[in-house]
Amino acid sequence: MWGNIALILPLSILIAYLWPHKLSAFKFNICVGILTTIGIEMTQLIMAFFYLGSRTFDINDLILNLLGYLLGFCIYKVIKPIFNIESDMFRVF
């Protein structure tokens, strides 16, 4: 259970840090989280269909991965004003 939450949590923090202006909208982040978790679960389904893995498609994994994604996004939104995090990745000088 905790593994599914921890799997996507860093991804949401990284996306929000790298592109703070484009991806700061909550609705867009929900879409990215849903598409990421569906992609992971579909990969597991396809691998199980061709006997390449023992993982299965599970709705609980979808919910927990999305919960982890949203938790990471909320952590970033809370920590950003405290530490005054600014992304300088795309600035030249």
Short description:
The protein has 93 residues and is mainly α. 71% of the residues lie in helices and 0% in strands.
Which terms summarize this structure?
mainly alpha; elongated; 0% strand; single chain; 93 residues
Describe the structure.
With 93 residues, the protein is mainly alpha-helical. It is 71% helix and 0% strand. It is built from 3 helices and no strands. Helix 1 crosses helix 3 (59-83) and helix 2 runs antiparallel to helix 3 (59-83). The radius of gyration is 15 Å and the shape is elongated. The mean pLDDT is 81.
Topology record:
Blueprint: H1 2-18, H2 26-49, H3 59-83
What is the tally of beta strands?
0
How many helices in DSSP terms? Answer: 3
Mean pLDDT, all residues: 81
Uncertain stretches of 5 or more adjacent residues: none
Ends apart, CA distance between termini: 44 Å
Class from secondary-structure proportions = mainly alpha
Shape summary:
elongated
State Rg.
15 Å
Instruction: Report on the biggest sheet.
Output: none
